[in-house]
Structure formats: C-alpha cells, structure tokens
Amino acid sequence: MNFDLDTDQRDIAAGAREFFTGSASPAAARAGLEGGAPAPGRKALADIGFLGITVPEVAGGSGRPLLDLAVVAEQGGAVLAAPSLVTAARAAVLLADVPELAAQLADGTTAFAVLDGSVDGSAPSIDAADATLFLGLDGGDLVVGEGEIVPGRPLDATRGLASVRLTSRRVIASDAAELWARARQVAAVVMAAEDLGGADRAVALGVAYAQEREAFGRRIGSYQAVKHMLVDAWAGVEQLRSLVWWAAWAADSAPAELPLASSAAKACAASTFERAAGTLIQVHGGIGFTWEHDAHLFWRRAKVDRLLLGDEAEHLDAVARLAVAGAL
Amino acid sequence: MNFDLDTDQRDIAAGAREFFTGSASPAAARAGLEGGAPAPGRKALADIGFLGITVPEVAGGSGRPLLDLAVVAEQGGAVLAAPSLVTAARAAVLLADVPELAAQLADGTTAFAVLDGSVDGSAPSIDAADATLFLGLDGGDLVVGEGEIVPGRPLDATRGLASVRLTSRRVIASDAAELWARARQVAAVVMAAEDLGGADRAVALGVAYAQEREAFGRRIGSYQAVKHMLVDAWAGVEQLRSLVWWAAWAADSAPAELPLASSAAKACAASTFERAAGTLIQVHGGIGFTWEHDAHLFWRRAKVDRLLLGDEAEHLDAVARLAVAGAL
Amino acid sequence: MDFDDSPDEATYRARVRDLLEQHAGELLHLAPGQEGVDARRHEPEMRRTQRVLAEAGLVGVTWPREYGGRGGTLVQQAIVAQELARARVPGLINHIGIGMCGPTVIAHGSQDQRDRYLARLLRADDVWCQLFSEPASGSDLAALRTTAVRDGEDWVVNGQKVWTTLAHVADFGILLTRTDPERPKHAGLTMFVVDMHAPGVSVRPLRQMGGQADFNEVFFDDVRIPDSERLGEPGEGWRVALTTLMNERVAIGGAGGDIGLPVEALVEHARDRLPALDGDRQVLARQAVGRAVVAALAARYTGYRRLTVLSQGGIPGPEASAGKLAATEAARLVADAGVRLLGDEAVYAATSGGDDRWQRTQAWLPGIAIAGGTDQVLRNILGERVLGLPPEPRSDKTAPFSGGRR
Amino acid sequence: MDFDDSPDEATYRARVRDLLEQHAGELLHLAPGQEGVDARRHEPEMRRTQRVLAEAGLVGVTWPREYGGRGGTLVQQAIVAQELARARVPGLINHIGIGMCGPTVIAHGSQDQRDRYLARLLRADDVWCQLFSEPASGSDLAALRTTAVRDGEDWVVNGQKVWTTLAHVADFGILLTRTDPERPKHAGLTMFVVDMHAPGVSVRPLRQMGGQADFNEVFFDDVRIPDSERLGEPGEGWRVALTTLMNERVAIGGAGGDIGLPVEALVEHARDRLPALDGDRQVLARQAVGRAVVAALAARYTGYRRLTVLSQGGIPGPEASAGKLAATEAARLVADAGVRLLGDEAVYAATSGGDDRWQRTQAWLPGIAIAGGTDQVLRNILGERVLGLPPEPRSDKTAPFSGGRR
Fold first, then answer.
1. Domain tally, chain A
2. A210 vs chain C: nearest CA distance in angstroms?
3. What pLDDT is attached to residue C199?
4. Kind and range of the H or E element at D302?
5. Is residue D248 among the annotated active site residues?
6. Do residues A278 and A230 lie in contact, with contact meaning Cβ atoms separated by under 8 Å?
7. Is the dihedral of CA A30, A13, A271, A260 positive or negative?
8. C386: Cα within 13 Å, side-chain hemisphere
9. Which of C280, C392, C393 sits opposite D283 (nearest CB)?
10. d(CA B87, CA B136)
11. Which CATH number do you get for residue B198?
C-alpha cells in the first residue's frame, strides 16, 4: 500500500501552483463578475498543456492518468482559475475515439463544452457561455454540434455557466450511455479536486487571519470558537483530499470503484467547500463580508459548485445505492 | 397578545414540580432498567388528579385545557416520571364521548394504553407493558379491548413500551379517523412537553457542572467550546418551549392550527432533547458516561422519544405539507 | 394565553388602520413583489412618508410624550409595524434614529439636546446614523481608535468608522470616540452627537459581498464638535454605548421579527416549485421546507414570549441575543431551502424571470451572522449573562489602551 | 499510488495466512456474528491465543528485535491485523500493553525493566494496563492527585485511578503519580511500573451507561513500589506519559481503523432492511446511509494516507487526533443510520431476535467522544499543533500544584 502522491505528481503540483499563481486569482474572479475575462483563459491552459493531460498522445495530448489532472485541478481551484479543467477531463473521455476532435480539445483551437441535461435546452453547463462546440447526449447517442447560448446572471462568473440549445448535431458514438456516465464521473472527480483546492485555500486564509487579528486583547485564533471552527474546516479538507485521490486513482486503476468513489468525493466536496468558505467569512468578521475581500469569491464558487454535476443529495443517494448493490 | 403562562398555570407548574420531585427521579428510571416499578406510578398520578386534567368534569375529571396538562407534563419530564401523561391526554380525547371509560381513566382504576399501528400486532406503544385495556384504530373504528402484550428489552424503561395484539375488541366509535388523528396530535404535544422538561433539566445539570468542575486551572464553563455547546442546547430548549405552548394553546383555542403546531413541536422536541442529553454527557466527560450518573437516563429517554409518535422526518414532512396546503 | 388583540388593542389597531387609509395619498407604498426602498434614490419621499406618519402619531409610539412620542406600549408599536407592513408602507428612513440613536439621547443627553433633536428625529427632519464600528474593532468594539481631543470648547475628532447604515443621507450621528488612551480601553471612551454635514466628515459607500452598498465608511479629519454635543460624561462612552447596543439587538431579531425573507415567502415558493420536482426530490425538499418552517415559527413564537414580557414591564435583557441567534439560523434554513427549490436556476444570481430574492438573501446572510454581534459573541453573552457561566480570563480590561495596541 | 500489496508485502501476507491456518487449532475464534470476547470470562484462552501468536512471530511486529519484536514495518503490522480479522481471531488480550505500555517501557525504562517485562508482555505471560485518569483529572490529566512518596528504597502510593481497561486481569500497569506537589502540575509527576498483585491494590469494575463494565476503578492504599520500578526520572512523568498518549491516539482511530461497527455492517444491514421501508422512507434512509458511508470511507482513506507516511519513516504526530475525530463522527453516522433502519425495533435495546449491535454501539459512542481525548481537547491540539493557532492563556502551567488545588 502506498497512498500518497509520488515525486512526479509532487513536481506536477508545484509546477501547476506556479503557473496558476501567476495567471489567475480571486481578484480576476471578482473582475469576472463585472464582465472581466476568465483567467488564465483557455489559450493559456492549452499552451501549458493542461487541457490535454488526459488526452491520448496520438491526439496530441499527454496521455497521463486522471490523478495527474486532479493534482493540477486542485491548484487551479485554489485561485479560482477559469475555465475549469472539468470540461477538459470530461471531453477527453468522450472523445477518446475521435482523435481529430480530441486534438482540438488539447490544443485549445476549439472551445468545447459538455452539456448536462437535454441538448434541446440544456441545464446550466460549465464553461458553455463562451464555447463554440458542444458535446451532448441525445437519446443515447453522443453528439457534437453548435448551439444557441443562453447565459444566466452569474453568481460565480468563473464557471461560465449557460444553457444551450443545439442548432446542429452530428452523432459521434451510438449507445454511448455508459461512456457518458463514465465521463460524468470523471468530471465529478475533477470538480471535487478543484473544490479541494478552493477549500484548502479558504482554510489557509482563515487560519492566517486568526493568527494575526486581535480582539479583547488576544489573537482571535486563541478563542476556541474560532479555533475549533477552523479545525473542523481543515479536518474536512483532509478527508476530502483522501476521497479525491482515491477517486482519481480509481478512474485510472480500478474502474469498478469509480462510480462509488466519484460520488463520495463529489458529495464530500459540496459540503466541505461550503463549510470552508463560510468559515472564512465568519472568521474575518465584517471585512470578510465586503466586496473587496476575497472571501466571497470562494463562497460563490462553493455555492455554485455544490449544485453542479449532481448535488450532495444525488451523490449520497448514489453512494447508498451502489454500496447496497455490492460496490462496497 | 399575551403569550405567557398565567398565574393559575404557574401555580399548577409549581404544584406539579413539588409532586414529581418527591415521587419520581432519574434514580427511579435507572432502577426501572433493572426491573424496578415506574415512579410515581399510575395510582399516584390518578390520586393527585393528573390523569384526569383534560377529562370532562362529568366523567370525574377536571375539564381543564391541554395547556394545563402540558405544564404538568413538563415537570414530569424533568424527572423522567412514568407512566407518561401522553396516554392520559390521548385517551381523554378518544373517550370524550364515553364517560364511563373516561372515569376509569381519570381515577386510575383501569390502566389504559393507546396502540399505534395495527391492533393485530401494534407498533411499540407507550405504557402498554402493564396496561390492561387498550384503545386502537381498527379499520376506521375506534375499538377498546384486552390484549396480549409483547414487551421488548427496554432502552428507556420509563416508557413501558410493548407491542400488543388485541384478543377482544368492542367498537366505541365508528368513522373515528379524524378523532384518532386529533388524539395523536394531542399526544405529540404532551410528549413534546415532557421532552421539554427533560431537555430543560439536562441543560440545567450541564450548566451546574460547568460552573463547578475545573480543568487546566479554570472552570470548564469558561471555555467557549463548553459554553457555546450549552448555550446552543439552552437556546434550543427556549425555542421548544415556545412551540409547545403554542401547540397546546392551539389544541384548546385554535384547533385549525393544531396539526401544524403539534408537528412543529414534536419535530423540534426530537432534536432538541437529543442534543441537550448529548451535551449533558459530553460536558461531564468520563463521569457522565457511567451507569451511576443520571446523564444516560435523559439520553435514553431522548433516544426513544425521538422515534415515538412519529419521528422528526415524519413531522417535518407534515409541517411542509400542511404549510404548502395553506395552514401557514 | 391569547394571540388576539385585547379590546384596547383592537381599538388601537382600527385607529391605526384608519389613519393609514386617510393618509394613503401622502405615503410611499411598495409595489407588488417589491421588498424595500433604496434611501439613496428615494430620500425625499422617504422623509416625507415618515413626517406624515409622525404627524399622525405613528412614529415613536413607545417614546415618552415629553420627547414627542406617544407613551404607548410595545404591543402598540408592534401593531403599528404590522399595519404598516399590511398597508405596504416601506420601513422608515430613520429606523436607526428611532430604534437606537433617539433612545440613547433620551437616556444620556442633556435637556437641550433632547429638545433640539428628538422631535425633528421623529419627523425625519433630521436622519440619524450610529458611528461605532471601526476596521480594527468589530466584536471588540471598545478597542476603537477614533480619537477626540479637547481643544477649548470643542473636541477635535480624527479617525474612521465603518458599517455605517444611512451615513450618506444622515444629518446627525452618535459617535463613539477615544478621549483618553492612557486609561483601560472601556474607560477612555466618550460619546458625541456629530453633525454629519460638518467640515471634515466624508462618507464613502461600502460595497458588500452581494454587490450592493447598504453601508458606508465614514472618515473624520479634524472634525470639530462643541463640548455641548457630548452625550454623557467624558470617559462614560462605553456605558452610553451599551444603551444603544441593547436596543440594537432587540431591533435585530430580538423580538421575533423575521430576518431575511419571511417564512411565508418560502411556503409560497414551495407551492410553486415543489410540483415540478421528481418524487424523491419532493421528499427531500419537504424535509428542508419543514425544517425551515419549524425554525422560523420557533423563533417567531419565542419573540412573542419576549414581547409579552416586555409589554408587562420587563426590561430588555441579554435574552434578546438568543432571539437574534435563532432568527439568523432560521433565516439560513429558509434561504437555503428557497435557493434549492430554484432547481437549475439556483446556480445563477437570479432566475430567468429576474427574481433574485433567494440568491440575494443567501448572499446577505453571512453578514447577518456578523453584524450586531457575531454568533460567537452572542453565545458568550448568553453563556455568561443568562446561564451564569464563568467568563474567560481577560487582561485587556485593565491595561491602559495605548499599551495594548499593536 | 497503489493499494495492492507490494511483492514483499504479498509474500508476508501469505506467510501470515499460513501461520494462522497452521495454528488454527490453538487459537480462539469468533463465532459468526460475534464481535469480541470478554476478558472477564475467557482470560486463559485469550492469554493462550496471544502466546501462540507471539511464538509464531505475529505479536509486536513493529517492535525492535532486541525486545522480542520483529523489527517489521507498520504495513506488516496492518497486514497481520487484517489477516487476524479475516481469520476471525479476536483482538489480543494485551492490546493496551502492546500498543501503549510496551512502547513506553522501551522508550523510558531501564535495561533491566525491558529485559524483565517486554518478552513476557508480548506472550501475554503478563497482561498490562495503563493507570493515568482520575476522577478529578480527565482532560486535564496533569491535575492528577494520586501521590507517591519516597520511603527508603521504595515509594508509597495512595490514590485512585479510573477508566482502567483490563485492570481486573492485569499483572502490571504503568502508573502516573504526583511526587512533588510543590512544583507546577506538569513538573511534579513520576511514572512507575506497578505490580497489580501488590498488597494495597484493589480493582472494582466500573459500569458504563450501556450497562456493561469494560473499565475499572483502581484504588491504591499504601502500595509500595521499589524505586527500581520507576520509568524515567522523578518529575519526568509527564514527558513519559506523552509517549503513551501519542501511541493511544494512533491506536484509537488514528490510522483509519473503524470505531464502532464497520461501515460494511451498515451496508449489509441496509440491504436487509431498506426494502421493507415505504418509498419516502427509503429516500431518507439512503441519504443517511450514503452520508455514513462517505464519512467512513473518508476516515478510512485518510488513515491510509497517514499509514503511508508512517511506513515511509514519518513520526506519529498530532494529526492522529484528526483521525480519531473523523472516525468518531463516522461511527456516529453509521450507528445512527443503523438504529433508524431498525424501524419499530429501534426504541428497544435489542431486536426481537436479540440482536443488540446497533443500540449497544449507539450507547457506547458518547464515551468514545470522551475517552482518549474529548472532541474539544483534540480540536485544541489540532488547532495549536497542526494549524499553528495561538494557545489560550493559561495560569495553571506555572503555579505550584498544591496552590491550584480546590
């Protein structure tokens, strides 16, 4: 047994941290709420190779395991980077047998989005707001096509959410329900990884403030109410990290475990990130409640992500059903 | 608007407190787990008139409002008295038009129990273990009869739980579904009142200990972790008190509000008492976890009551349905 | 026990209702679906509305007659509030003045101050704000750093306040300052009435996480305040402030008023949205709605109990903090259930129809658990002052303030 | 990343499995459905079982060879634990000795003590217990009052310990005493090895809230301990105890082992009971089961991460406390979901078939949130030692103990 990142993965994480720290930030997420462009943006992600991590090498990707992508996604989540690597991971699964499209995914020449729900008026879908080519499930068939985009007023602008109605469609795989399901499980794992990064950063910011801010003659982190709130948030992040790693590992090495593991990770991510972001605001008091402070940007991401790709209730239900059916 | 007990009700409460303090105790509840008799026991409750508080005067009762009974039940709950006044209140509703039976209820000559679920093998029913005459709903009819009693191994001996199969039955009211429902609502209010008493006492015991016990050179109540746990438990009790009073008042004065109010009170009672009892143990540390300490007797009552007469989920569902249907 | 009006109360309610009908033409009214009015945009109409109501005897109901009030009961005040809501008249522009500043002037002001300010306050001739919080002193209010230095007959004020509701339209404010940094923190404070139009006062809107600016920052740059505008003695500012703060906690949720959206709005929303959910989802949604309704009703009826005690002559006590805690928690449950009922639209800041009530409330609640006492501070108050649990050891109460500063 | 055995581990596992089959006839085995064995009733068989395992090299796997161990890795130890569970061999009678007392003797004992005790401990020739907690010192262990007074070559011990697992069958114990009440509380403590059969030692079972007596009270009445049985220097007892406590927290949930019933038991129970529920109830039950499974798996995999770090040479740190917190919370969710799935039978102490696993576990969990560090104490440890948050101000660390006593 060896349940830890290896040296390669640690190097990947360090590289990703450096890239994202220089190219994205909560400030950019704030600007996005007033019309600013996503940061680092699709092109930058393509140029550094992150969009193609799990795309096969024949299609110009790196052909690496999902765990590598999850490690990168965590670093992106920490600075609320956009667009999400969720789409890259999910589309890579869907396009595994369509190398010419996979190549456009990896090199960023086409802006893909994957549509949740009906292709005739989809549910809010990640990074669909500025996508040009859409993947969807149309009566069991995997289709690709162009579409009419209806964005909503953003709560978290970094997610680029929009509903889409396909205006053209081409079947690229029939009887694709199983492939589609697997792609969605992979997407859930990557979103959980991004949430892990966001939650981890939120706790770190809260801890740092509690170490400095004083009230009633003591640093506020010395008060049990503040200390225990942060400890619970931190402990939740550590639990989430284990589930994310397990689920990503399962996608690569134990596909039979992926359905349960991905649902466990996504369910845990929803509540863990929400608590971490809420704790970040509460620990900061008034300043944490201002537009200029970064806290609400983590909070916004958490409030939106908890509902995307299946909310906690959906995934808890799935975990129970799968476990009872023998997956545990 | 006047939402408070009046002088009469305060006097009733004081009298009940004195009676129950002298005649019941957690120690008696502990003895019950090893075969001891219920305290104060049915006869003592009859003699002081508590079984007949809501029985009409023509049937030898006091013909008083349910609120009076709830005020008494709270005091009984504080010392884990048995048998429960739930049965007295519920049977008084069911027997309102059967004065000869109501008289036997009020004077304690007959030990009644009300059966939940099928009369051919009831759900665990309160104080059925040593009852001699049973009331049940049999296909829409209210029936009375004798029965075969199957008690389980008690978790909380003060509740006298048993399943019963009627061996004889006599119809005392046809088309009684509505009456039955109202009686169950009244029962839920009285149980919530008993739980209020138990929860209130659990918090008081926890507060008293936290004011005395020292650790790390300070009284433990000065630590925020302990203080805030007790405050939350206490605040829950105050909220519950308001719902219990409202529900009891509704039974007397605004019957249309009773279904929603009784479900609100019972749902709140389940979680509030459970939290208060859990807090009592946790604040005490090791000693609170021993057989000889009273804490577990409150905990046992809470763990059982939360499931009787409909659990929290059932009542939250009812509250939502009723509210949406226009009851709010 | 009785939730109905007594005969006196019924008579009073009828009179209030009459008056509101009689003056309907002179009052602002909320449009259907509208929840409030922005003082930035409708200041004149809001001032006029309050003046009309004041002249009708419906403002300052519980204030003593000698200060322009009606010497009425808290129940009468509650009746007026209910009837205003029923008539869809928006909240009064001077609610801070009426609820907090006025009572502080009554309790601690000179006769001259009372004469000059109180009647005008009730008529919204002057709008008031409260200048306590600072960037470096939130929960620990007594650590404030805004200074007032005596200079002849005046005091000269320098510093910054924050979270000031209505500062941008206010004419006056009650201002807590440090006048003696060598004394322990609570002992070196002094309260003033400050003219918000005085030279050196500047106001900047403070944007909250939800995007709107309900609050302001206020900067004081050598602002001169005559000594006659002192409220209470020098060094007594903390005691004066406690009067204000207790009134604040009663105002925020302490008397059972809903925080955030009323639970009836959630029930109506559920009525619309529940049928569209699939069966399993309905089961879960009913749990969430039921839980929110129970919490909201428990908070509401607990408020009624407190109101009953107050109307029988009880004194507002620290229990009001429990009301705020409970109302905050209920508001969270109500808002979260409401957001989730939006289904797919919950991930946006508004529905496709432009309704943003649920998301806006969701983004406003984190502030509610902070403003007017954080959840943690309220629990300390309740634990120590209601349950009698021992306080934490503190060193900052006795050390000179200047020594304790970072 | 890899959850499979490495080739070495697989070889080791095969050998362990062989050994367990080979010795099956000499070992206790759990009957189907049985979870554990009561040391009060089966002491001889339990001692024999451990001796057989020790002779086969399966006890003290990670202990140094010079003290009778095998110098193995934590992973090997985990493999042995897994294989013992698989073969339905119950937990070892001397688990306290192996997990806590032995490592303390290794770290702080004299060579003579190590020679006399450790090999016998591994073979269960001697069973050990740990004598730390007292009625007046739970979380604040260093406030203990049991005294040891020097008298010639001996120390004379008086006082009372509580919550002592296995004291009724133990031959030896490690005993923390106060030897200098004039020094600050942590500085006046000394640790000893005590002969549990010595005159003046008496043991009384301590009944828990669930009714059973897993623990004991131990009374010391002028018990003489030779100075040669001291563990560490006089006044160094606190430092010695920390070695024991850190091993305790690793043992209780720190490495991801389940507390209470394993989540697989809940899943099996749900498989039996879910179909009998009506549709709405199934929806809610699946939420509860799902939540419990997620929490249990999260705790388990976090334990695997910690085990990986330890097996790569990491030192057990305060993070183990997070493992206990998480495992406790998971156990609560598992037990509560299990109880609720019982339906009507949940209000009794056992099912009609006599199965009391769920209710018994439910009644045992409140103690788990207390024993081996309350949830609150663990959060302090994590906040201060892992997150680096400042400690609370304390006066009891420096004052002489006798002055601080009530």
1. 1
2. 14
3. 98
4. helix D279-311
5. yes
6. no
7. positive
8. 24
9. C280
10. 12
11. 1.20.140.10
Distance CA A84, CA A65 (A): 18
How are beta strands D230-231 and D189-195 bridged, if at all?
A: antiparallel
Residue of D nearest to C288 (CA): D284
| Size (chain B), residues | 328
CB contact under 8 Å between C393 and B218, yes or no, is yes
- Helix (H), strand (E) counts: chain A: 11, 8
3-class SS string, A208-257: HHHHHCEECCEEHHHCHHHHHHHHHHHHHHHHHHHHHHHHHHHHHHCHHH
With DSSP H G I counted as helix, E B as strand and the rest as coil, what are the percentages for chain B, rounded to 5?
60, 10, 25
Give dist(CA D265, CA C332) in Å, integer: 35
| Chain D residues closer than 8 Å to B33 by CB | 211
The DSSP bridge pattern shows strands C128-131 and A133-138 to be unpaired
Write down the residue that tokens 């503190």 correspond to: C394
> Over the stretch A9-19, which tens digit does the pLDDT of each residue have?
999 999 999 99
Q: Could you state, in chain order, the average pLDDT of each consecutive group of 10 residues for chain B (328 residues)?
A: 93 98 98 96 97 96 98 98 98 97 97 97 97 97 98 96 98 97 98 98 98 94 97 98 98 97 98 98 95 98 98 98 95
Count interface pairs A-C at CB distance under 8 A.
Answer: 106
How far does the CA of residue C156 sit from the closest CA of chain A (Å)?
A: 27
Interface of A with B (CB under 8 A): 223-225, 228
The 8 Å CB, 24+ separation contacts for C61-68 are: C63/C102, C63/C106, C63/C118, C63/C122, C64/C106, C67/C102, C67/C106, C67/C114, C67/C118, C67/C119, C68/C118, C68/C119, C68/C122
Contact C249, C259 (CB under 8 A): no
Within its chain, how far is the Cα of C57 from the centroid? 22
Tokens 């990640």 map to which residue? A126
B:212-231 residues touching chain D, CB 8 A cutoff: 214-218, 223, 225-226
Q: Is A239 among the domain residues?
A: yes
For chain A, the residue count is 328
Domain-embedded: residue A77: no
The answer to whether residue D43 neighbours chain A at the CB level (below 8 Å) is no
D partners (3+ CB pairs within 8 A) are A, B, C
Catalytic residue among C83, C134, C229, C248: C248
C406:A214 CB<8 A: yes
Structural domains present in chain D = 7-93 (1.10.540.10), 128-241 (2.40.110.10), 255-386 (1.20.140.10)
With contact defined as 3+ CB pairs under 8 Å, the chains touching C are: A, B, D
In whole angstroms, what is the distance from residue A102 CA to residue A108 CA?
10
**Identity at D9, one-letter amino acid code:** E
Domain of A312 in residue numbering reads as 179-327
What ipTM was reported for this prediction?
Answer: 0.96
Neighbors of chain B with 3 or more C-beta pairs under 8 Å: A, C, D
Interfacial residues of B (vs A; Cβ cutoff 8 Å): 223-225, 228
Mutate to test the interface with D, among B290, B294, B312 (most CBs of D within 10 A): B290
Task: Kindly state the DSSP code that residue D145 receives in the 8-state scheme.
Answer: -
Tokens 């984190």 correspond to C366
Is B294 a member of any domain?
yes
Is residue A300 situated within a structural domain? yes
Q: How far is C161 from chain D (nearest CA, A)?
A: 29
Which amino acid would we find at residue C83? E
Tell me if B320 and C287 make a contact (CB, 8 A cut-off): yes
Instruction: Measure CA A126 to chain center.
Output: 10
pLDDT tens for each residue of C110-134: 999 999 999 999 999 999 999 999 9
- Best residue in B34, B126, B216, B292 to probe D by mutation, most D CBs within 10 Å? B216
